[in-house]
Amino acid sequence: MVPLNENLFPADLGWRLAFGLGAVFGVAILLVRRNVPESPRWMFIHGKEGQAEELVQEIESRVEDSTDEQLEEVDEDITRSATAAPRSATSSPRCSPAASPHWSPPRC
Fold first, then answer.
1. pTM (2 decimals)?
2. In this predicted model, what pLDDT tens digit does every residue of 46-92 receive, in sequence order?
3. Which 3 state secondary structure label does DSSP give 5?
């Protein structure tokens, strides 16, 4: 990293520059994040199914217009069926009590 190169900056200044650069990047990310739209997946997870569907249809329409081809229909719906069990942290084999005789809940 350039600020830590003692040939370019003294050691007592270089770490301060690196630290300040991290703060600048953090502020830049916060500013840019305000303008990044939510993805359809995020919208769906947060109960905005209608908006997610509209966005996907808009994207598909643009792709079809730019390629002059019809997109294939999706075979599955993104909603969970009523019979499907919700996925949880304990649904994977390594996260189950049977994985070890000395089992304790892992950080999944």
1. 0.42
2. 898 999 999 989 999 999 999 888 888 777 665 654 444 555 544 55
3. coil
